[in-house]
Structure formats: C-alpha cells, structure tokens
Amino acid sequence: MTLYADPVRTVSVQLGNRSYAIKIAPGLLQKLGNECARLKLGRRCAIITDTNVGRRFARTACRSLAAAGFEPSLITVPAGETAKSLRSVEQCYDQLAAHRLERKSFIVALGGGVVGDLAGFVAATYLRGIPFVQVPTTLLAQVDSSVGGKTGVNLKAGKNLVGAFYQPRLVLCDLDTLKTLPEREFRAGLAEVIKYGIIYDAPLFARLERDLAGLLRRKPALLAAVVARCCEIKAEVVGQDETESGLRAILNFGHTIGHAIENSSGYGKFLHGEAIAIGQVVESRLSAGLTGLSDGDAGRILDLIKRAGLPYAIKLDAGRRKKLFAAMKLDKKVSDGQVKFVLARRIGKVVWGQPVPVPLIDRVLA
Ligand SMILES: NC(=O)c1ccc[n+]([C@@H]2O[C@H](COP(=O)([O-])OP(=O)(O)OC[C@H]3O[C@@H](n4cnc5c(N)ncnc54)[C@H](O)[C@@H]3O)[C@@H](O)[C@H]2O)c1
Ligand SMILES: [Zn+2]
Fold first, then answer.
1. How far is Cα 249 from Cα 331, in angstroms, rounded to an integer?
2. Which of 107, 110, 251, 259 has a CA 20 to 30 Å removed from the CA of 322?
C-alpha cells in the first residue's frame, strides 16, 4: 500500500515585493524550520505564543527550527485578549533584546489571533521592523487574522486602537493544530467562514450548507478545502486594497453591529465570532430593508448560523440599545459621525459604505 502525504495547498498574497505564501496542510508545524530556511532569514529567532498553545505546540516548533539550524527562544504570554496590550508589547521587546535579536532575526507568531496581532505588532516595531512568520492555530486565525497584515493591540479606550499594517513573510496553517481547539472557539471561527460566503462566494456558502455537519466534525479534507478557499478570498481582497481604502471594507460584514455588541456587553461575554454571528443576522435584516437582499437569502443566512450552533439574536432593552449605539459611534469605521455598513444584495455580493438610518437599526434590534 502506498501512503500519500496530504497535499499542501498554497495561496499567494500578491503585494509586490511584500508578497507571501499561505500554506495549508496537516503537519506543517514539523516543517516550520525548513520553511523558514527558504526565506533566507537570520539564525536567531523568537517564538511568541500563549500558555495554552505553548503547552501543546511550542516544543515541536522549537525542535523544527533548531533542526534547520536556527536558534529559537520562546516568549510565552498569558492566554486571552488581555495579552493584546502595550504592557505585553514591552515585555516582548525586553525579551527580544535579552536574546539579542537583530535586524535579520525573525519572530514566529504561534497561536490564535491574539498572539498573531501582538507578535505582528512587536515585529513591526522592534528595531523598526523585523521579519515575522504566522503559524495560526485557531480557525479564526487561519481564515482571517493571520492573513492581510493588520497587527496591533488594545487600549483601555477600545480594541485595536494601536497598530500597524505589517505583512508576514509566510503563513503556515497546520490543520492538525485545530484538533485541540475548544468547540466554542471552533464554532466562533465558523462565523468568519460563513461571512466569506456571504460577501464573496455563493458556491462556498452553498457548500457550507451542504457540508456543515462534516465541518463541525472537523473532517480534514473539508477543513483543508474551506480554510484554503477563505484564505484565497482574503488574499484577493487584501491584494486589491491592502490598507482598507475601499474593497477591504467588505470583510467587515456583520462587524459594525458585532463590534458594538462586543463593546457594549463588556468584552468576554461573547467571543468575537459569536458577536459577529449576531451582527451578520442583524445586518442581513438591514440589507433586506435597504439593499434588496431577498427574504429567502436572509433566511438561509439565519439558518446556517443557527445550525453552526452560533448565537443569532440578542435581547436588548431601550437602555442597552442606547449603549450599543454609543459603542457603534466610537468604532474606528465611523467617518464624519456617520456609521457606515456593509450590506448584502444577495448571498455572494455585498456593497460597502452604506449609511443606515438609526431608527431602522433600532427597529431591527428591537
Ligand atoms: N488582524 C486581523 O486582521 C484580525 C482579524 C480578526 C480578529 N483579530 C483579532 O484576533 C483575536 C481573536 O483571535 P482568536 O479567536 O484566535 O482568539 P485567541 O487567540 O484568544 O485564541 C482563542 C483561545 O484558544 C486557545 N487556542 C489557540 N489555539 C489553540 C489550539 N490549537 N488548541 C487549543 N487551544 C488553542 C487560545 O489560547 C485562546 O485561549 C482578537 O483579538 C481579534 O481582534 C484580528
Ligand atoms: Zn472578525
């Protein structure tokens, strides 16, 4: 019997001399060292990870790097959103300096979106920028946060208020790492996957409707296909509009309401993906009223989100709705005091920059 190795899917992000590859396959963590060796980087490097991920995967990552001739050091931050702070940034700088990382040295971000955003920002700013490689280990990070170069940390005043656009040199999505991801985190990642179907790819949406059960069981072949397709979409969008002056805004479908829910309900109550699941349901209702989304399509979106085990509604009295509007106006995406939405015309096609009258939002939320 011949055993065939799983094929590696490669998606390229085309950004001129900052272009890079996203590789998707099981078992990539073991190949981290060899993959980095092809990038012609310095010998010294640092893995930034969190306690949950480090415990499971740091050893494999270190060994692979060392076997390829690198000298890795390990920086572990506490798991959770609080690690995305300027305090952690400073602690990382101190450790990089202690390990004498220099201009050609590089950082490996091993973890979910929190680690990726933090490590990316550290890489963007340490010595005015050193190379970094993303090894995302959550579904959300594999399909979304590790691709596209948005890095940053939170302030007390709000999420992601300090940051930089800084592209990684390589993204390695090891599908095996998803095996240990808690169920709730996995489903939250699916909310972003569903988003790609709505904003860009009706066949992907239909595939999710068909294959949801297998995906929830994390069937490797399905995961590989779906993660790769989402990365392709993100790469296409980012390749056309790196710094969000236009098209990239479509990635925010469900996020205007979603961010406001996260903000006004106190961080921690909903995972990001859960908040944007509700956001997508609300924004598809707004789309039905304003951009011609059919009731049929709005119903399919609601159904898929329900079947994925994601929250799809939120009960808000008038007071909490007021708080939510206040949060919406604080969002970075507001310009001239107008809250702009991404709205759907149909599944697979959205338009951005749509003003929505506050009374309509209020009615839909009530
Ligand atoms: N840069 C971007 O474009 C972008 C896009 C979307 C979201 N984000 C950011 O991403 C963050 C959310 O990312 P997230 O959802 O990956 O959260 P996360 O990084 O906090 O990971 C979720 C939890 O899963 C654990 N974990 C990670 N991988 C694991 C694995 N393989 N097995 C077991 N446990 C594992 C983590 O320790 C953590 O407890 C937010 O801060 C958000 O702002 C950034
Ligand atoms: Zn998101």
1. 14
2. 251
Q: Where are the beta strands (DSSP E) in 197-270?
A: none
Amino acid at 13: V
Mean pLDDT of 23-38: 98
Q: What is the DSSP string of 201-260?
A: -HHHHHHHHHHHHHHHTT-HHHHHHHHHHHHHHHHHHHHH-TT-SSGGGGGGTTHHHHHH
Which atom of ligand 1 has the smallest separation from the CA of 271?
15
How many CB atoms sit inside 10 A of residue 314's CB?
20
CA distance 269 to 360: 26
Q: Is 150:165 a contact under the CB 8 Å cutoff?
A: yes
* Residue 185, SS3 per DSSP: helix
The amino acid at residue 319 is G
Residue 177 CA: which ligand 1 atom is closest?
31
Contact residues for 187 (Cβ-Cβ < 8 A; gap 6+) = 216, 273, 274, 308, 309, 310
Give the model confidence (pLDDT) of 204-247 as tens digits: 999 999 999 999 999 999 999 999 999 999 999 999 999 999 99
pLDDT digits 0-9 by tens, 82-136:
999 999 999 999 999 999 999 999 999 999 999 999 999 999 999 999 999 999 9
The DSSP 8-state label assigned to residue 145 in this structure reads: I
Q: Is 172 helix (H, G, I), strand (E, B) or coil?
A: strand
Q: How far apart are CA 65 and CA 133, in angstroms?
A: 12
Sign of CA dihedral 11, 13, 17, 20: negative
Residue 187 and residue 179: Cα distance in Å, rounded? 13
Tokens read off for 230: 């989402």
- Mean pLDDT check: name the lowest of 6-10, 111-115, 142-146, 265-269: 265-269
DSSP lists the bridge partners of residue 136 as 111
Pocket of ligand 1 (CB under 6 A): 50, 52-53, 56, 79-81, 84, 111-115, 117, 137-138, 140-141, 144-145, 148, 150, 159-160, 177, 180-181, 185, 272
164/161 Cα distance (integer angstroms): 10
Under 8 Å between Cβ of 66 and 7: no
User: Is 255 in the active site?
Assistant: yes
Q: Is residue 333 over pLDDT 70?
A: no
**Assign residue 48 a region: left if phi > 0, alpha if psi is -120 to 50, beta otherwise?**
beta
Determine whether 90 is an active site residue.
no
